[in-house]
Specification:
heterotrimer; B: mainly alpha; C: Helix Hairpins; 4 helices
Chain lengths: 144, 177, 112
């Protein structure tokens, strides 16, 4: 996929950092404010996709991104499952909230929920980004 | 709550345009109009979590649709063609089914609590005990990640399956020419 | 009452598109419309007049919230809908590469 014009590239350079920080904020504050792993993950995937659309990618770079995305998707899924299995190992109940609850309305509260949010955020962003790479990036063999 | 009705009328008009128009790109833009109206309606019925997700997902849906249309064709050549016999059968069967379905849904909706008066039989307990049992301030996060976390694990598996399907269907190496 | 029926009508427009249209992209659009209608119906069922979004802002304020359970059920379904729509579009794209048309009647003719 070719990149777009200079205007798009400059605007993307300015905006993409803010989108990224917003996505991470949505994931980390998922247990206190609207949002969570699904919303933040989709926003992060949008940031990656914006970068690919604006700057383009050659075949080599696309292969590398695709590999990284699949690794991160597996890491997110395994982290989520690992939290569930840790609950089973420690207390005997699948998905039990085994960590201390902390002070209500503080950032470090709610036990396993922030960890699950981070795992789902990684998984959703990597999954949607690899869907986009497969469909829309460098022409994947329509002409050959 | 008049704005909810206005948005629903707008969505129905946009949906009819999306299904009937000849240019596929215009159809996809109309689909985007429906999706963003859904996001605004989520805000109006006090569901900010859903609105955030719906806006970004709608952008990605339109991007993927446009990517597919750009590498094929954007003219729907079936619009305005001679109507085949099977299509008339399909329309007749659909009308019968739609009538029966509307009747059944009408009966079912009468059993529901009226709009704006949700009973919240389970949710009352979740809201009363959520802050002490789980500790999160966002009730939706409490429900999806603690009370009903197994459901979320299943949904994550479905997403994983669809990603595997997309990547396997679009792979470059190992395909027959 | 009327608002629920309007959601059902939106659902039926999507079903009409799936059953009677011959273009594959129009069928995919019909699936997306049905998803929106059902998600919206769930969110509307959980609404209460004068209630707030289910986020606790201080410990001892009265908890007058809309129903969080339909919202939790819909939240995951929206993201899953994106995944399934992408899978459907990829299959459609491969069909187009093989037959060079979106018309399902033509595709049937070419095959038989």
């Amino acid at each position: 996929m070719k990149g777009m014009s200079l205007i798009v590239k400059s605007i993307t350079n300015v905006v993409i950092g803010f989108i990224f920080i917003y996505g991470i904020y949505i994931i980390l504050h998922g247990h206190l404010t609207p949002g969570g792993g699904f919303a933040g993950g989709v926003i992060l995937a949008g940031a990656f996709i914006l970068r690919i659309i604006a700057f383009g990618a050659d075949a080599k770079g696309e292969d590398r991104s695709s590999l990284t995305a699949s690794v991160f998707e597996s890491v997110g899924g395994l982290l989520f499952l690992g939290v569930a299995l840790a609950g089973m190992a420690i207390t005997g109940i699948f998905f039990l909230n085994f960590l201390p609850k902390g002070v209500p309305l503080a950032l470090s509260s709610a036990g396993i929920i922030p960890i699950c949010n981070i795992a789902i955020g990684i998984k959703v962003s990597a999954g949607l980004f690899s869907i986009f790479l497969a469909i829309a990036a460098v022409k994947s063999g329509i002409e050959d | 709550m008049i704005e909810l009705y206005l948005f629903l009328v707008f969505m129905i008009v946009a949906a009819i345009i999306a299904t009937e128009i000849k240019d596929l790109l215009a159809a996809v833009i109309s689909l985007g109009a429906v999706g963003f109206s859904v996001a605004i309606m989520f805000i109006l019925v006090q569901a900010p979590d859903l609105a955030i997700v719906q806006i970004v997902v709608e952008v990605l849906t339109v991007v993927i649709f446009v990517a597919v249309i750009l590498r094929s064709t954007h003219i729907d050549e079936t619009v305005g063609k001679k109507i085949a016999g099977t299509q008339i059968t399909a329309v007749v069967l659909f009308s019968v089914f739609a009538f029966l379905f509307l009747f059944a849904m009408f009966k079912a909706i009468q059993e529901l609590p009226a709009f704006g008066n949700a009973t919240m039989r389970i949710a009352k307990e979740y809201i009363r005990l959520g802050l002490t049992q789980v500790g999160g301030a966002n009730m939706v996060a409490n429900v999806i990640l603690d009370y009903r976390a197994l459901d979320t694990l299943g949904e994550a598996t479905v997403l994983f399956t669809s990603v595997i399907g997309v990547v396997a269907l679009m792979r470059k190496s190992g395909r027959k020419k | 009452m009327i608002i629920f029926i309007s959601c059902i009508i939106l659902f039926l427009i999507g079903l009409y598109s799936i059953v009677t249209k011959r273009n594959l992209i129009k069928i995919a659009i019909g699936f997306a419309l049905m998803e929106y209608a059902i998600n919206l119906l769930f969110a509307l069922i959980g609404f209460r007049k004068g209630a707030l979004a289910p986020i606790i802002t201080s410990v001892d304020s009265p908890h007058n919230f809309v129903d969080p359970i339909p919202q939790a059920l819909v939240l995951t379904a929206i993201v899953i809908a994106l995944g399934t729509t992408a899978l459907m579009l990829v299959v459609i794209m491969r069909i187009y590469e093989k037959y060079k048309t979106f018309d399902i009647a033509e595709i049937k003719k070419l095959k038989g």
